[in-house]
């Protein structure tokens, strides 16, 4: 039995030396990987470049950006022995579509209607700086335009409706009611079996309040990363049986 | 004798979970720290959160963004025992001044002249999203506006004209002549004693071509990170005597 665990954060390149990064440490993903491996699963650990790395006999696949993750996820899901996906990675919701200085941008949007400005911003890919090289350090201002990246989580059940899918939702400083509500919406939308909903203000190192929401809208609350990892092993193993 | 070594990359927060990051690994800084410590220096290692960490009895000071680096550099330079600064850190040249979606931005810049557009982009700080919280993941586009961050390197000799200063210049895919020229300009401008100039295309793990430029415009070329670290110890120790 194999399980895919994604962990850490993606990073999208702005240029050769600058990135748009998600700050997840991958610590929870690491603990999940170790817990599943200790319970006899073959773990496929797809992780951001700065994520914590689990100990043990685990297949580790580093990825940079969303497109790398998409490719590796698709490849891993081809394996019929995969029974579940713990999608803990903080995936960038946006790509970098262009970088320009303020004058370059202003050249295109001066004297335009609101509608035209929005259209130009939406189609600015071919303008701005060459991002294969390093963008200069002496611009008086830079406009980094971002466009939506493909979503990874809806792809999973589309490709493999038989796997058990755990999604993750991180919000910042919201009520528990709102957190559970948003987490449950994610579950319904992406056909997750579970969603682990958490709030950044309740994460302090390994002390980590996480609510594991089920498809009947009930949820169980854990207090540490270790407890979340153990809880996931128990829930997945129950379903796999 | 104390030496300050900066290492790794800074990261500027876009919101609570997203950053603008510089990708330096801090590997060269780590090797410099270890080489100086082995030569009897007390090393103050100011490093980005993902930088390699040196072994040995070294004071380690983690920093996030440019302002943290500025504060820690100023504090460290107060110590009269500091004789040199190896400023290897990849410091962000830009801050995040605002994040907005395309409609928010367009509301402010529709039907404006080029000059007004540039002015509005330059003063957009108070507009856009509240960045204390996480920015939503379902915007059809985001405009991240960046403004110049304070430069750290000119501050060093201003505060302590007596320390030996090594600056770093990284370019991407340029001729050796251009690289040396740009490196020498950095040296003159910031009153560096040396500048280590390197090109990203000539950095492959520990194989790392680095040109150590002196204030007489001559330079010495090294082939590995280890050789660069050893070269810096030799040059600094010669000057300190």
Walk me through what this model shows:
The structure is a homodimer of 241-residue chains. The first copy, chain A, is α/β, with parallel strands linked by helices and 241 residues long. Chain A has 2 domains: 2-93 and 150-240, 3-Layer(aba) Sandwich (Rossmann fold); 96-148, no CATH class. Helices cover 33% and strands 33% of the residues of chain A. Chain A has helices spanning 27-38, 66-77, 102-109, 114-122, 153-159, 176-190, 225-240, and strands spanning 2-7, 11-13, 18-22, 42-48, 59-63, 82-87, 94-101, 142-148, 164-171, 194-204, 207-214, 219-224. In chain A, helix 1 packs across helix 7. The model of chain A has no long low-confidence stretch (mean pLDDT 95). Chains A, B: One of its GO terms (molecular function) is catalytic activity.
Topology readout:
Two copies of one chain form a homodimer.
Chain A: E1 2-7, E2 11-13, E3 18-22, H1 27-38, E4 42-48, E5 59-63, H2 66-77, E6 82-87, E7 94-101, H3 102-109, H4 114-122, E8 142-148, H5 153-159, E9 164-171, H6 176-190, E10 194-204, E11 207-214, E12 219-224, H7 225-240
